[in-house]
Design goal:
Helices cover 52% and strands 8% of the residues. It is an alpha/beta fold. A hairpin with a 6-residue loop joins strand 4 and strand 5.
């Protein structure tokens, strides 16, 4: 088994980062086997090097190695490209064509940007992974193939699965071994090393002296975020090599080739959502409705107290917490002014006794307040309960799918299920 350093020299890999070394080590270890490998990492980190290492160190090294960019092939023709087609299978199919899986029999196929595959193609690919069988477009004959599949993606696969853009069973078949390539910003010790290598290559290519960075420029180079990773660093090195007459590059010169640094500052984003974090319009609407209902009930209670006692000052003193809850930021003086201007309705002793003791509501002028509260509570409660029940029934009790349909988080749905005892 070759050493990591020997593999780097053989495949032109630059860097001594620990995570990069671990990725290469995993590639060396899985090479002698036929298990599927999924290479993950951001765009521009150099994921295409790992499949080449795996193929060249495997027993398939004398077979064909085919790299396919799944994102660059139109959805209507990708099945034909991968699995082939029969003559007359569709308009323009003037002759039978062999697909990549047939041509690469005994070798390795590298599926780059596998997260962009259409769902129908994912089903075909799953069959190849499970039993090595495929059917050409327009044919009914099952064919066998013996290929090793190495896939790569810069997509968050769990998010794609959650949004039903990628099959979960296919993900687990592809990612028997997962190799992650770190982004350039996590390989700070390799940034200047890579820049010097690119500068040397372009000096040789364009037959001109090699550019060099002064100390201030090196600091700028290391602190930059490099969202485009190695590809972006290579492009910057090439631009400077071609355009600059002075071969010693200062910090001011380097800044002219970098995007606005303030636009690349990292934002702190929490992956976990707080229970009070309403992330979409429907949850916000629910919160507003429930808050309005609560405030309305508090107002009704306060109004009833005023009707019973007829003393605004006493009601204000006894219900200070309710007033603060309803009016929030108002100061105590504002409350006093509000109650000074408030006209208290005169209520006779007969009416007071009537409110407290009788059950006959035919002469009660204020009975409508209780009726409105009951009707509103039932309508809002029942509507939400009905929506949740129907969604759960449609998805056979699967909370994740029901939450997605309702437009709320799975955690919020779980709380509501417990609240309504479903």
């Amino acid at each position: 088994m070759e050493s990591i350093q020997a593999i780097k020299q053989r495949f032109g890999i630059i860097g001594n980062n620990e995570k990069l070394n671990r990725a290469i080590e995993k590639a060396i270890q899985v090479s002698p086997t036929d298990i599927s490998v999924l290479v993950t990492g951001e765009s521009g980190v150099g994921k295409e090097s790992i499949p080449k290492i795996i193929h060249q160190l495997s027993h398939r090294k004398h077979g064909k190695y085919i790299a396919v960019n799944c994102g660059a092939i139109p959805e209507g023709t990708i099945d034909s490209e991968l699995f082939g087609h029969e003559k007359g299978a569709f308009t323009g199919a003037t002759q039978t064509r062999s697909g990549y899986f047939e041509v690469a029999d005994g070798g390795t196929i590298f599926l780059d940007e596998v997260g962009e595959l259409p769902l129908t193609t994912q089903v075909r690919l799953l069959r190849v992974l499970e039993n090595g069988e495929f059917i050409k477009v327009g044919s009914s004959k099952v064919q066998k193939t013996n290929v090793r599949i190495v896939a790569a993606t810069n997509v968050n696969m769990f998010e794609a699965i959650k949004k039903e853009k990628f099959r979960e069973d296919l993900y687990y078949r592809l990612s028997t071994v997962e190799i992650n390539i770190p982004p350039l910003r996590e390989r700070q010790e390799d940034i200047h090393l890579l820049f010097r290598k690119f500068a040397s290559d372009f000096a040789l290519k364009y037959k001109m002296p090699t550019i060099k960075l002064n100390d201030d420029a090196v600091d700028i180079l290391l602190k930059f975020r490099w969202n485009g990773n190695i590809r972006q660093l290579r492009n910057v090195a090439e631009q400077i090599s071609v355009l600059e007459q002075n071969r010693t590059i200062t910090a001011a010169t380097l800044r002219g080739y970098l995007p606005n640094a303030s636009a690349n500052l990292p934002a702190v984003i929490s992956n976990s959502k707080a229970e009070s974090d309403f992330s979409n319009e429907r949850e916000i609407l629910y919160k507003v409705l429930f808050d309005m209902k609560s405030d309305l009930n508090d107002l009704k209670k306060l109004t009833m107290e005023l009707m019973k006692s007829g003393n605004a000052n006493e009601v204000q003193k006894d219900n200070e917490h309710l007033i603060q809850k309803i009016y929030g930021g108002k100061k105590e003086e504002a409350y006093d002014n509000d109650f000074e201007d408030l006209e208290v309705l005169p209520i006779t002793e007969k009416q007071d006794a009537f409110v407290e003791t009788t059950e006959d509501t035919s002469q009660d002028k204020y009975h409508f307040a209780e009726e409105i509260e009951e009707e509103e509570t039932l309508s809002l409660h029942d509507k939400e309960l009905e929506l949740i029940k129907k969604s759960l029934e449609r998805h056979n009790g699967k909370r994740k799918l029901a939450a997605a349909e309702l437009g709320i988080s799975e955690r919020t749905l779980y709380r509501k299920i417990k609240q309504y005892d479903l």
